[in-house]
Amino acid sequence: MSTPPRWFTDTKDGHSQWYVERFRSLAAAGTDLAGEARLIDAMARPGSRILDAGCGPGRVAAALHASGHSVVGVDVDPVLIAAAEADHPGPVWVNADLSTLDVGLADPGYQGFEMAVLAGNVMVFLAPGSEPAVLGRVAAHVRPGGRMVVGFATDRSYPLAGFDRDVAAAGLRVEHRFATWDLEPFTPDSEFAVTVLRVPAVA
What we know:
Layout: H1 6-9, H2 15-28, H3 35-43, E1 49-53, H4 59-66, E2 70-75, H5 78-87, E3 92-95, E4 113-118, H6 131-140, E5 142-153, H7 160-169, E6 173-178, E7 192-198
Parallel strand pairs: 1-2, 1-4, 2-3, 4-5
Antiparallel strand pairs: 5-7, 6-7
């Protein structure tokens, strides 16, 4: 990667391990960590192939796997992928940069994912300027007519207007937008956006 993601440059040393331990502690305390996964599960057909792009330590992918889906989780941070492998056997875990993602595309028999999810503020932790490439590479892994669901805080380094421009440049279409993963209505004052995108169908 030519420019490192903000995940590495805008955080302190040891942040990745702190993040892992934070979610381990929340899980041990019984905190509900599956809100994003419930929405994706409700949208997906049973047994769908789902890509968790920017999976972190694996909580969303693990919940989707437990619901019967075939899940691949991808993250650029090897510390987070190692934690996902240790804590959540079942999904396939891949350490890779989303801006150059290629998980099976070179295989002539590649079928694609029915859905992709980018949760946990993935978009605001990308390398500056890499957002269009990330959207395009993730979309390339989704079957024509499939969907991507992207959630991030709107008060960070990546404005929603910029996201919408990058979505259009990637050939994707905004179908729905909500303020939360439990589908509260989006308003101009919302500090978070959950956007459902449609990958173009083959003409």
